[in-house]
């Protein structure tokens, strides 16, 4: 039975959604096309009607995962307009986010995988990272203080680096107290950076 164009596009979007979650859980090379397509409710044979290659899917899934992450940042900011930076930091550096393998930060989940892939996969991550930096620059610029644009950009980079690093390390260690200590310390340090202090 022939699939309509509308159904084919819906199937494609389903595969991208499923891949964005399963790649974060297993890595790009940790799940095969058969299992990925099965999780999307489709056969492996349908894959090549929708994507040029697995790398094509990796690019699309990375974009989707980074868009989803950006939406979660926006939701956190909207829920707490009095302290939007604090809301993002508390959400991102939480034990709950640490435990989220399929819906968590794609930079943490797939960053090292992306670094070993081609320019197009890296470009997806670069675009998402730039979006995060722009959000942090806006939030830092709302923090009291008279700063140059260059200093705001530097703070945003330092904050994003600290957040990604702390979440990554917290996922690597077994000791839950040590993991939480990394997250809590990063929360405090982000506040200090935003306020112009280093503690």
TrEMBL record:
Residues 32-51 bind DNA. Residues 9-69 form the HTH tetR-type domain. InterPro entries: Homeodomain-like_sf, HTH_TetR, Tet_transcr_reg_TetR-rel_C_sf, TetR_C. Keywords: DNA-binding, Transcription, Transcription regulation. This is TetR family transcriptional regulator. It comes from Azospirillum melinis.
């Amino acid at each position: 039975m022939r699939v309509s164009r509308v159904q084919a596009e819906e199937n494609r979007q389903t595969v991208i959604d499923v891949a964005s979650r399963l790649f974060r859980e297993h890595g790009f090379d940790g799940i095969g096309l058969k299992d990925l397509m099965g999780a999307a409710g489709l056969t492996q044979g349908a894959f090549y009607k929708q994507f040029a290659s697995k790398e094509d899917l990796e690019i699309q899934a990375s974009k989707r995962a980074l868009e989803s992450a950006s939406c979660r940042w926006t939701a956190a900011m909207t829920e707490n307009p009095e302290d939007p930076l604090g809301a993002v930091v508390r959400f991102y550096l939480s034990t709950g986010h640490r435990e989220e393998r399929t819906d968590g930060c794609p930079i943490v989940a797939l960053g090292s995988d992306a670094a070993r892939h081609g320019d197009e996969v890296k470009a997806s991550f670069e675009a998402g990272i730039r979006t995060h930096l722009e959000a942090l620059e806006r939030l830092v610029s709302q923090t009291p203080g008279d700063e140059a644009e260059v200093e705001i950009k530097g703070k945003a980079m330092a904050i994003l680096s600290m957040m990604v690093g702390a979440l990554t390390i917290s996922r690597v260690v077994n000791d839950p107290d040590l993991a939480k200590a990394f997250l809590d310390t990063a929360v405090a340090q982000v506040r200090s950076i935003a306020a112009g202090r280093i503690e």
